[in-house]
Design goal:
This protein is of the alpha+beta class and about 180 residues long. The chain has helices spanning about 1-25, 30-40, 45-60, 75-110; strands at about 30, 115-120, 125-130, 135-140, 150-155, 165-170, 175-180. It has four helices and seven strands. The strands form two sheets. The protein has a four-stranded antiparallel sheet with strand order 1-7-6-2, covered by helices on one side. The chain starts with a helix and ends with a strand.
Length: about 180
């Protein structure tokens, strides 16, 4: 049983490293486009794969470790269903985060990136204070390529109407990013 705990901990550490990698390596990136790509093309396959694999995994690996089996079949089946649902919910979030991070990372590392000089007016500024008290700055400006609004985290306060000027790149997935 101890070996099982170490495998789960190792799995979670590897997932955390994969998910956090682009947040430390790439300074600016357009998260909303990556979220749309992940949700549109990868969320349903993730859920379908988990729905197929999780019940088998649960009944072969997890349930045999349970020593406290309920006295009635209804309680046992209810507990099994809730456990599988919670595993589905948590693992969907983990795999969504992994795919999101891989899209951001491959956007930068795969293929050639097109450099573009962004010189757009800030259409909206929103400060956000995290639960840890850290102030984050978000701006919206028009994408010069397709005229959609881009929501970008920046490192200082901007005024509405001020010009956001930065040399950035479009990567493999067409997502705007910068490592400077």
């Amino acid at each position: 049983m101890e070996n099982w705990k170490y495998k789960v901990i190792l799995f979670l550490i590897i997932c955390a490293l994969i998910i956090s990698y682009p947040f430390f390596y790439i300074d600016y990136f357009e998260a909303s486009t990556a979220q749309r790509i992940t949700a549109k093309y990868f969320l349903v396959p993730i859920i379908i794969c988990l729905l197929i694999l999780l019940p088998t995994f649960y009944f072969k690996k997890v349930k045999p470790l349970d020593n406290d089996i309920p006295k009635t079949k209804i309680k046992e089946r209810l507990r099994d269903g809730i456990s599988i649902f919670m595993m589905l919910f948590c693992l969907t979030g983990i795999f969504f985060g992994i795919v999101f991070s891989l899209i951001i990372t491959t956007n930068k590392l795969v293929g050639k990136s097109e450099t573009v000089k962004i010189k757009e007016y800030v259409e909206e500024y929103k400060p956000n204070t995290t639960k840890n008290g850290r102030l984050r700055h978000y701006i919206k400006f028009e994408n010069p390529k397709n005229q959609e609004l881009i929501n970008l985290e920046v490192y200082r306060k901007y005024e509405v109407g001020e010009i956001f000027e930065k040399e950035m790149k479009y990567g493999y997935w067409g997502i705007l990013y910068s490592t400077e």
